[in-house]
Amino acid sequence: MRLLIVGTLEGYITAAGKIAMKRGAKVSHTDSIEGALTALRAAAGADLVMIDVKLDIATFIDSLKAERITIPVVACGIGTDAAAAVRAIRAGAKEYLPLPPNAELIAAVLEAVAEESHSIVCSDPAMLATLRLADQVAPSDASVLVTGESGTGKELMARYIHRKSRRSGEPFVAVNCAAIPENLLESELFGHEKGAFTGAVARRLGRFEEANGGTLLLDELSEMHPRLQAKLLRAIQEKEIDRIGSSQPVKVNVRLIATSNRNLEAEVRAGNFREDLYFRLNVFSVAIPALRERPADIPMIAEHFLRKYAEANGLGEKRLNDDALLMLRAHHWRGNVRELENTMHRAVLLSRGEEVGPEAIMLTSQLLAPEGGGHSSIPANSPVANPFAGPGGTVPAAPQQPALPTPLSVAPPTALPTSYGPKGARGGAYGGGAGGGGTLQGLIGRTVADVERDLILETLTHCLGNRTHAANILGISIRTLRNKLKQYGDEGSTVPAPGEGSGGEQRALA
Questions:
Q1: What are phi and psi of 176, to 5 degrees?
Q2: Buried-most residue among 89, 277, 341, 406 (CB within 10 A)?
Q3: By the 8 A CB rule, do 508 and 495 touch?
Q4: Predicted pLDDT at 402
């Protein structure tokens, strides 16, 4: 939990910050609204803002909406000023917190926000059974190994276990073992003394000490080097660590939760993972089912992400129609919940109006489907049985036979731009001839490269020329996107500049 406190609050700021830090929050402070906006634009950001009610909360929240920064705001004020509380709530604050600070009240606010930010959305019996298992192990101090495919929500499960444990009021610290180089991971976990190595200009406490009394999540533990595995085993057995460069061990009281998307037993047999460490960590195992194994969760999770990204992009409420929902149910979801989240983010930006139809659902290729995982109960002749199954996951390749499947039975989009292609080309992401509209029929005769170009430019238009945002939606790197845009500009296509979008002026890249 990252907490940003805005305002002076007449000296109560220190007390409120200390209470929040004891509850595991990372607290930062600024005196002004301008400073708060600067902090929220930075990479660190925040999960919750507590702002002095004397400041212009309405302007602050309007600025957040204008910049599409979605974050809960809690107003704080001295005493129980009912009029101030009403003004704050009307301005858009989620709660009003009276000061001097009450430890239990601040804890409740932090817990409510954490629950909202890291909630697990599910209704399928398979996932509900997994949560019941997590509920049973959570109150203990036993180490837990959370397994599952990439994108299933292993870190969310770890946070869920922490919230249900007796350590819920203490810090939750997560370390991605795959994202930190091996020569830095040891210092990250165990800390170091000043002068222990080149660049160690001061003592640094490691994540074990940072999580003391709470929970330490070792994400993607299978990526850890065997040498560090030995040191981790000692820390678990002896409940003490050695900082790099120190001769004095440090006692720690940490509950460990580890995650892996690999089969650790197979890694042990292959000699890549220590057997003794595996059994130390695997006191209790929680296996998260893949999304395709809990199909009842797909509609609920999809609607959850629709609401989230519609709000984040300043759009109105959206809902899935029946054909779009059939498409989602039929898909293999190799990327699990993370893939579904990205799909709904794209759908929010590509849909027209309140209803999200199949024309806005861009799915990955069936070539990525797990073996035996691409089956569906939807009839083969259904208009949504095999949507957008071509290379790249957005459009089908040119048909090999003259006979075509029944086109998608949806109304063609009428507002897609048709001016992206070079002179003589048929533009629009779903264009390709009179009456082509949004059906597969309209793609006949067009190359995959042409349709890819129109999809990229249409997405960039929806993102108002924001390259980073567009690259995230398209699932490609920013470098790939820039190279594509340079190519399109050289070919004579017009490309939205940053800040430009639908209805705005466009310029050609030189």
A1: -90, 105
A2: 277
A3: yes
A4: 40
Per-residue pLDDT tens for 31-52?
888 888 888 876 556 778 888 8
pLDDT at residue number 506: 39
* Separation of alpha carbons 357 and 362, rounded Å: 11
pLDDT of residue 304: 92
Q: b/e per residue, 470-494, with b = 16+ CB within 10 A?
A: bbbbbbeeeeebeebbeebeeeebb
- Residue 346: both structure tokens together: 């794209």
Which stretches in the chain have pLDDT values below 50? 373-439, 502-510
Judge contact between 40 and 3, C-beta under 8 A: no
DSSP H helical ranges for 118-252: 125-137, 154-163, 182-190, 207-210, 226-238
Query: Which residue reads 């890694």 in tokens?
Result: 267
Vertex 489: Cα angle to 487 and 491 (nearest 5): 70
Q: How far apart are CA 208 and CA 83, in angstroms?
A: 46
Antiparallel, parallel or unpaired: β 250-251 and 494-495: unpaired
β-strand partners of 29: 5
Q: Please state whether beta strands 73-78 and 48-52 pair in parallel, antiparallel, or not at all (unpaired).
A: parallel
